[in-house]
Amino acid sequence: xxxxxxxxxxxxxxxxxxxxxxSRVARARRPEVVDDAxxxxxxxxxxxxxxxxxxxxxxxxxxxxxxxxxxxxxxxYDTVGHDLVGMVIDDLAVCGAEPLFMTDYIACGKVVPERxxxxxxxxxxxxxxxxxxxxxxxxxxxxxxxxxxxFDLAGAxxxxxxxxxxxxxxxxRPGDVVLAMASSGIHSNGYSLVRRILATTDLTLDSHPxxxxxxxxxxxxxxxxxxxxxxxxxxxxGHVRAFAHITGGGLAANLARSLPPTVDAxxxxxxxxxxxxxxxxxSFGEVPQSEMDKTFNLGVxxxxxxxxxxxxxxxxLLTSRGVPAWHLGDITPGTGQATLT
Length: 341
Fold this sequence. Notes:
6-stranded mixed sheet, alpha+beta, single chain, Phosphoribosyl-aminoimidazole Synthetase, Chain A, domain 2, CATH 3.30.1330.10, about 25% strand
């Protein structure tokens, strides 16, 4: 007689994982969350949107990419959940949407309850930081497709924005100012190149290059900075024309997505020091600057385009909220391009 457990699926381990994560998930709630006794769906009270004149729902989905492989190799699982929220929820913030709720999906070769609880706990902690609820998720055991220690991680989020308050390219004008918000590290993009560098050079996750204040592996797993609440505060202040979340493609390519075809963004490389982690990877991997530019955030995780007469006030607001920020560049007449000079 053959059982599901014989096929590699441990139902009891999945139930144990759910029990372990419950207390941390409970911290990622909003008043609008309604419990579904069956647990098959997450419920959110949409009457909370009745004060909007014309509410638009915004949605985003993303994953953590190959950063999960480094987490697996180092046995550190709570930070990649934080990364997932940064990738999903900060995309919602770009249009000015307030994040409402999020769901997650974890595929793994074997359910290890403590590991799954750490991953989901990290998601819940980051949702609390972002001001959104974690209303549900799924953990799927895929024996035979994934090794016992392998996993992948994805999620989706929903937010809301007033129709006449949507931020974006149509608001941007020549003379506007581009502000940078510092990243916490590599965030969750470019890890395929990182892994290639590790595979082809003397660098290892245990390496401690002189320029770094900690081992390389620890630096690489630094969780993504969550910008959502800071972006929304800027939006409420009326300072912002558009945001750009600096993810895959790098600074210039992502900022160009937030420009109309009548302007350019001219960005000043000398306005900030690229963090040491990026310089270490570039040096050991002999990575051309052009590749660095289009692969990594290079220390800028989010950009804001603001009116020139409010730039100083916007910088003060970000600084008061603990976000390192600076004048990155300016908007000039052009053809919708962003360039680093």
